[in-house]
Amino acid sequence: MFSLHFRVYNHLILCKFCALFVQEITGSQVGMGRKAKDETITVAEGVYLKDKDGVFHAYFRLAGKQFRKSTKTSDLTAAKLLALTWHREALRKADAGEEIEKISFARLKRSYLEHIKRQAKHDHHLGTIDRHFLPFFSKFDDISKIKKADILDYTKFRTAQGEQAPTPQTINRENTVLRQMLRYAVDRGWLKVAPTITNESERLTWRRRRHFTFEEYRKLYRTAQKRIRQLKDNPLTKRQYEQRKLLLDYILLLANTGLRVDEAKTLIWRNVDWESKTLLLENAGKTKSKRRVIMRDGAYQAIKRIQDRRVEFLEKKKQPFDVNEKIVALPNGTPVASLKKGFNELLTACRFKYNTIFEKHALTSLRHTYATFRLTTRSGNRASVRALAKQMGTSEKMIERHYGHDVVEDYRDELAG
C-alpha cells in the first residue's frame, strides 16, 4: 500500500514538472492566449524574446555585452528552443575562450563605414572595399576565421584582377584600408587579434610622376591657343570654342598653383582673394584639404578671364553674379565635371610620343609640372621643399620622392659660382 502511494506521488511530481516545462517553452497554460507584441518574453534567466514585426528576436547578456539575433520564425515554441540553444552555445564558447558572436565581413563593412562617415577617407575606403575586398571576403560570415593564409590568397586574387596587375604601391594603399578595418574589429571586441598584413616591396616598381618638360609645356600651351583660333569664327561650334578656352585657362590654373584636379573642381568665386592673389580651399577634393594657395600670375590671369566671360554672359541676361558658383564652368554657368576628353584630344594634337601607357601625360601631370618648375627654375627664386609642401598640401617626403625631376645641370648657377 505504501509502495502504491509512493508511485502515485512520483507520478504527480513528474506530471507537474512536465507541465512547468511545457509552460516555460510555450509561454502559456492551457487556454492562455499569446502575449502582446511589445512584451518581453522570458525564456530562461537572462534569456529573452521580443516580437518584432511578427518575428521573434532572442536577447541575452554575456560578459557585459548584449547579444541579439533573429530567430526568423513567428512560432513561439521554436523561437524559445532556438534562443536556449544559442545561449548555451555562447556559454560554451565563453568558457573555451572563443569569440562568442559571429560577425560577417558584410556587417564589418557597414559598421566601419558608419564609424568613419564624417572623415575625409570615407569615400576612398568605400570604393576600395566595394571594388576589391567584397568580391573576395564576402564569403566570410565570421571574420574570426580570416587568417594569414586568407590574406595571402586575397593578394593573389587581387593581382589577377584586370588586364594589368596592380603595382605594389597600389596593393599597399589598399591593404592600409583592410588593416584599418580589421583593427576596428579588434577595438569593437569582434576579433582578439587581427591577422598580419605585410607590405609589398615597392623598390623595383617605384616611378616618379610624369611632368611636362619646358619644351613640352610650351608646345601644349601654343597648340591649345591654335585650336581655339580654329573655331573662333564658326558659330556652329560655339560651345566647343568655349570649352577649348576653358581648357586652356584650366591648364594654366593647375600649372601655376599645383592644385590637385579634384581640388580645382571644388573652387567657387568666394574662394578667390583678388588682392592677395590667393585661393582658399575648403574641404576640397578627396583629401578634404583646407589651405590657402598662392597663385602665380598665369593662374591669376586665367581665373580673371573665366570670370570676365561669365560676367559678360550675365550682363546680357541682366542677371547678378553669384559668388557661390563654381569657377571651372562655361560662360552660361554650367560647371564642367571633367576636361579629360578635351585634354586627351589636345595631347593628340601636340603629337607627343609615348612608349608605354605609364609615360602618357594626364591632367595631374600639370601639378607635377608646377612642382618641378618651382624646384628647378633658373629665373627667379626657387621654392624650398617645405614651401612646396605647404602650397601643395602634401608632405616634404612626397615632394622629394615624386616631384624632384631635377638634375645637376639645373644647379649650374649655384655650383659653378
What do you see in this structure?
The chain has 417 residues and is an alpha+beta fold. The protein folds into 3 domains: 2-96, no CATH class; 105-187; 214-416, hpI Integrase, Chain A (Orthogonal Bundle). The protein contains 15 helices and 7 strands. The protein has helices spanning 2-26, 76-96, 105-115, 122-137, 148-159, 168-187, 214-231, 238-255, 261-265, 297-317, 340-350, 365-376, 385-392, 396-402, 412-416, and strands spanning 41-44, 47-52, 55-62, 65-70, 272-273, 278-284, 289-294. Helix 3 (105-115) packs antiparallel against helix 4 and helix 7 packs across helix 11. The protein is elongated, with a radius of gyration of 34 Å. The N and C termini lie far apart (127 Å). Residues 1-37 have low confidence and may be disordered.
Q: Which CATH first-tier class of the largest domain would you pick?
A: Mainly Alpha
Query: In what order do the strands lie side by side in the largest sheet?
Result: 1-2-3-4
Number of individual domains: 3
Number of strands: 7
CATH architecture of the largest domain: Orthogonal Bundle
Low-confidence stretches: 1-37
- Overall 3D form: elongated
Could you give me the name of the CATH homologous superfamily of the largest domain?
Answer: Intergrase catalytic core
Integer-rounded radius of gyration: 34 Å
Beginning-to-end CA distance, first to last residue: 127 Å
- What share of the residues lie within helices? 40-55%
What is the beta-strand fraction? 5-15%
| Mean pLDDT, all residues | 83
Q: Structural class given helices, strands, pairing? A: alpha+beta
